[in-house]
Write a structure and sequence with these properties.
The chain is an alpha/beta fold. It contains 10 helices and 17 strands. The longest helix is centred in the last third of the chain and has 19 residues, at 233-251. Helix content is 23%, strand content 22%.
Length: 359
């Protein structure tokens, strides 16, 4: 508390402790910190999200803002009450106005990372009216890295009002889902001149599906990292198809695509694993946005499942999926490549040959 009173000298604040102690400290950050460049706040547990930055906090020199297991400002219908996003009370409405107002006073921001653990399902939040007339629109002219973890409805309420023209890295983690849409995500990405997507990896893990897209194949870090929390393969592919439907305009720039499944790789060494396959129509919806992919790599037992989604019969359009594909790589043992024989032959007959490569 004594250190926070030296506002003219504080350059860096990093707080990670139980929420009751954090509450006292964040309440003390109620004036201008002219030299503050780095602010990191995280409760030691995600179960209590009743925290918010004071409305009177000013940090004109702030370059890095990371708020984990935190909250946006919440306006309760009762003016005397303020609650966090973890609340399931129907009397609480999320409003991005105050958060946008605070961000507008941080023009030097280069990193913005916010994670909100909410017990409210996404489909219950989507119906609330977040967007109000004459809401403030802000530009973050120096923002390079933006990260968000939470339910999609909260992020969709913020993105229409933020422009980040120099954004280079976007990390999104969606969880607590049932059904969702992300129309504002692609609009936000399209306003960023430096967010380039060329080489993509789609990874199906045991508890999440991850899309990692690099600006080029040799890049050390992804420009887009998108994680969707869900457990079985069928749900993962279905949710991914929902998101990719909106992201088609940006995913169409991807030229290299790799598919990898954690469960399929385990099934090769653990035959008793409970493996749920995704419906072919889901995979078609996942692959359809990648209209410019020229090289497709399929890892770890996914060959037969992916091949079921390709059109190979009479009367089907052979160019419906991956029309620019000219190389198909597969990683596996035995006759895994045979799964693509019908597809390779169909493309050959259509005058668009594809080279099959075993890795």
């Amino acid at each position: 508390m004594i250190a926070l009173q030296r506002r003219d000298y504080v350059r860096r604040i990093r707080l990670a402790m139980p929420a009751p102690n954090l509450q006292r400290l964040t309440e003390a950050m109620d004036e201008e910190f002219p030299m503050l460049e780095h602010l990191f706040i995280s409760p030691s547990t995600s179960k209590d999200t009743r925290l918010a930055l004071p409305h009177t906090l000013r940090a004109p020199s702030l370059r890095h803002l990371i708020l984990l297991n935190f909250t946006f400002p919440i306006r309760s219908k009762s003016p005397s009450t303020q609650m966090g996003l973890g609340s399931t009370s129907p009397d609480v409405d999320f409003s991005p106005d105050d958060f946008l107002q605070q961000l507008s006073l941080m023009p030097q921001l280069e990193t913005l990372w916010i994670r909100v653990d909410s017990s409210v399902p996404n489909h219950e939040v989507e119906g609330r009216a977040f967007h109000k007339p004459n809401m403030k629109h802000i530009t973050l002219p120096n923002l390079r890295w933006f990260g968000f973890g939470g339910i999609s409805a909260y992020l969709e309420a913020l993105l229409p009002h933020i422009t980040a023209p120099l954004l280079e890295k976007l990390d999104i983690m969606y969880f607590n889902l049932f059904k969702f849409s992300v129309p504002h995500l692609v609009q936000f990405m399209s306003t960023s001149e430096n967010l380039r997507l060329i080489s993509a990896n789609l990874i199906l893990q045991d508890k999440a599906v991850i899309l990692s897209v690099k600006p080029h194949a040799g890049a050390s870090a992804p420009a887009l990292y998108l994680s969707i929390a869900c457990r079985n393969v069928d749900s993962q592919v279905a949710f991914t198809a929902q998101v990719f439907k909106f992201l088609s305009p940006v995913l169409s720039a991807v030229m290299e695509l790799t598919l990898f499944s954690w469960e399929h790789s385990l099934s090769s060494v653990m035959p008793d694993i409970n493996l749920v396959l995704a419906h072919p129509s889901y995979w078609r919806d996942v692959l359809r946005p990648f209209s410019n992919v020229k090289s497709l790599s399929v890892h770890n037992g996914l060959a037969r499942e992916i091949s079921r989604s390709f059109p190979v019969g009479d009367g089907e359009s052979q160019m419906e999926l991956l029309p620019e594909l000219n190389e198909l790589k597969y990683y596996g043992l035995g006759d895994a490549g045979d799964a693509f024989t019908a597809f390779i032959d169909a493309r050959q007959n259509a005058g668009h040959p594809i080279t099959l490569v075993r890795q």
